Amino acid sequence: MTFHIGAKPGDIAETVLLPGDPYRARWAAQKYLENPVLVNEVRGMLGFTGTYKGNRVTIHGSGMGMPSLSIYANELIKDYGAQTLIRIGSAGAMQENVKVRDVVLAQAASTAGSPSRLILREMNYAPVADFGLLSAAHRVALAREVPVHVGGIYSSDVFYDERPDLNKELTRHGTLCVEMEAAELYTLAARYGRRALAILTISDHLITGEALPADQRETSFGAMVEIALEAAFA
Length: 234
Ligand SMILES: O=P(O)(O)O[C@H]1O[C@H](CO)[C@@H](O)[C@H]1O
Ligand SMILES: O=c1cc[nH]c(=O)[nH]1
Prior knowledge:
Elements: E1 15-18, H1 22-32, E2 34-40, E3 47-52, E4 55-60, H2 66-78, E5 84-93, E6 103-111, H3 117-120, H4 131-143, E7 148-155, H5 164-172, E8 177-179, H6 182-192, E9 195-205, H7 214-219, H8 222-232
Parallel strand pairs: 1-4, 1-5, 5-9, 6-7, 7-8
Antiparallel strand pairs: 2-3, 3-4, 5-8, 6-9
Bound molecules: 1-O-phosphono-alpha-D-ribofuranose (R1P) and uracil (URA).
């Protein structure tokens, strides 16, 4: 047990899927894992361990924002030995050609202020995905004919953004979408020699204003979960 995870040693699999939303964790575990068992509910942050095609997998909520993700990823890595961490999140599109419900594989994640800035200070460190996971996920998405984009994303510290000028520049520089966790996940994975990837489903569009309701963000992003599970064991 840790401060934030009530699981016993051995309850957490080496492969962990990390949605921000704990209810998305419950939905995905019940839909895609065989014999899912609840292994954590401290603070309502649900985690389940089961198997996928015979492979052990944990699906655990990470909360919203990099400080929250950092707590769970640190404990999953350092206390429970997680080796492969795949974020399955929602994101807001920042390009016209990236549509609602499309999937984005985050090759790199720019940020203005992750918890790791305290270590890296003035350095503009480039947090990147594990290439093996990224290429496997891309192959799976293409084979399943899922609309998929690969490229840079923005990990923001704020959902209610008041810097339209910054978003405009990020769009101009090819950023595909905005979310709030991937940059810190990639930085922690690099620090501890683990594999990480963020797979995102577009839930809303910063240019068109289109947006999916909360229940659909919780339970309708199956393609992303299947890509994550297949890529983890490719
Ligand atoms: O749907 P999740 O995985 O929580 O991801 C996105 O949704 C939350 C904001 O609504 C942030 O956590 C953001 O990164
Ligand atoms: O962080 C996020 C997640 C989804 N949509 C957004 O606009 N921002």
